[in-house]
């Protein structure tokens, strides 16, 4: 298929919607098994050679974060409701590779309790699978991504083999936090990272650009374009800039017959296939099902349970930021190298799980100061959240005159290097009030109702967990060596871009959308992959579990369906 040819593939076995980690891994594994696969991706294929320029966009104050990966505001329009405004377009990227193009790269496994919250604690619902069901696929996902890690987490789940690469060494600021944690008997350990501590799978070792999120120019950090390319090499067809509008089905409503998509020239096509896999993320998966409403499926495709779009989950953060009377050297690297799962078991301190992340990105980067030349605030993100602006564009316009040479050197030296940030990722239980619906009062570039994202209905479980986490973080900061200045406690309630739960899995078709094999209860030839089938999410980043469950689905499709 030529670059400009976006016509449907001829009689494929499987059509996959989305080329993030779920869609690309499934496409690769099925193509490797000899199946004819086509992938429809709403965004474009980003040439690797453009990454240095995209890094420069990320660093320059004239660019908004969404411009780094060319987000299309008209295509990706949405509305928000609920107590917290959900910044969907700051938290996702559309293109081949999906949101792994700009993700942070942390890849811990969910623990045993994350799959059994109802049985163990009486909260939420259990998954229809447990840790042992997913365990071998976790190992396969770690090998696929390329994970650098160490078996030093005493609170982690059981493992069957070593990580593919050695963990990254701790940063200087980690040593300061480790000293404080030792005083409090808090155990710390390495962070599993989907970035190369050595050359791996034909990709570079990390060379330290420090701009991991939103862009890694070296390719050392994994993104799903790696497996999209592998899928194409195995014979899969990938059609980019193909924005799926809806799924069509046969007269009975039992089988999907086609995915209707529109291309940049305004042409509408229908891609047929024997099997369909939705892998478009926690917001777009339910939206496409709701857009596919029909007389046979009056509440939306695969939605006889009414659960499509409901039970949206995210990971809010709380944290403490400030300055120390000594050098912390934060912002020297762009990713975490130390964390603690000591408070992951519910009831340890608060009612729910949280994990502690010791940031290596405290305060502004030197290049931000050089380009903007203003006295930065302790926590730009929190300030921006409070007043609804972009912190790297609007804050501090009316500051001191521009300086150069020795004065600029002194400004940067005074304003950087002594910052610290420590945060806790918080568990939020599924709540049907947190949801994705269609907003018929607003339309996207194609005339479709946009998704409305209602977020921020936190129960006492989450609120008390956030309070407990802030107490622990405060205790750690109190024990840092030296004198703490400019301390600020903050909350990031909008979440980290880990949308999940909106097409939940379960054994009861009246209360879930897909079964334990990610097959839709209501439609014979539809599977749904990614984070949207998650039942609970603990306080761990979801991408490794997305990878593991996607590999499990690919195996099931190959062995039992195709």
Automatic annotation (TrEMBL):
SUPFAM superfamilies associated with the record: FAD/NAD(P)-binding domain
Gene3D superfamilies linked to this entry: FAD/NAD(P)-binding domain
Source superkingdom: Archaea
Domain 4Fe-4S ferredoxin-type, chain residue ranges per copy: 196-226
Family matches, as InterPro entries: 4Fe4S_Fe-S-bd (IPR017896), FAD-dep_OxRdtase (IPR006076), FAD/NAD-bd_sf (IPR036188), GMC_OxRdtase_N (IPR000172), GMC_OxRtase_C (IPR007867), P2Ox-like (IPR051473)
Keywords on record: FAD, Flavoprotein, Oxidoreductase
The UniProt record lists the keyword Oxidoreductase: yes
Transmembrane segments: none
Cofactor(s) recorded in Swiss-Prot or TrEMBL: FAD
GO function terms (MF aspect): flavin adenine dinucleotide binding; oxidoreductase activity, acting on CH-OH group of donors
Family under the similarity heading: Belongs to the GMC oxidoreductase family.
Stated name of the protein: GMC family oxidoreductase
